[in-house]
Design brief:
- Helix 1 (about 55-60) packs across helix 2 (about 65-85) and helix 2 runs antiparallel to helix 3 (about 105-115).
- This protein has about 150 residues and is α+β, with helices and mostly antiparallel strands.
- A hairpin with a 2-residue loop joins strand 4 and strand 5.
- The chain is globular.
- It has helices at about 55-60, 65-85, 105-115, 145-150; strands spanning about 40-50, 90-95, 95-100, 125-135, 140.
- The chain has a five-stranded antiparallel β-sheet with strand order 2-3-1-4-5.
- About 35% of the residues lie in helices and about 25% in strands.
Length: about 150
């Protein structure tokens, strides 16, 4: 309870992890790397980073061709979830993603579903999510929240 007897509820009330939600119809798709609030320079947003656990060892064991096929299958799964939860893919670095969301609950839902869904490929992923003020450097989100999300995985 907060002073005065009010409850402090995260994400403005309740968030049910794993419950699919349609992306908002007001999302402007002309600049897919930034959430609408970041187009104005600075705003609040959630950042998600993912990475395949043990990817170097898995790639060495599988060889380039099989590893590339696995990464493509992984990317299809994660991209489907990014779209489901209204995220904006900023970048991929080999086997990981850098994604922004307007709402932290959507980033968390995407991360949870991605960690579960990629298990069908026989792999595990790490996911780090942070929420806070994001700036923009060109068309890419930047700032302390981006650096923090990359390190909490």
């Amino acid at each position: 309870m907060e002073p005065g007897g009010t409850r402090n509820e995260p994400f403005g009330g309740s968030a049910v992890l794993g419950a699919p939600r349609s992306p908002p119809s007001t999302v402007d798709r002309r600049e897919p790397t930034l959430a609408p609030m970041q187009r104005r320079g600075v705003g609040l947003g959630a950042v998600l980073f993912t990475d395949i656990v043990g990817s170097t060892a898995i790639a060495a064991e599988m060889g380039n061709t099989r590893w590339s096929e696995l990464v493509e299958r992984h990317h299809r799964i994660v991209r489907r979830l990014i779209a489901r939860y209204g995220g904006h893919e900023v970048d991929t670095a080999g086997d990981g993603f850098f994604v922004t969301f307007e709402r932290p609950a959507d980033a968390i839902r995407c991360a949870v579903d991605a960690t579960e869904d990629v298990r069908e490929l026989g792999i595990e992923i790490r996911a780090g999510v942070t929420f806070g003020e994001l700036g923009a450097a060109g068309k890419k989100p930047s700032g302390l929240m981006v650096n923090t999300a990359a390190r909490v995985m």
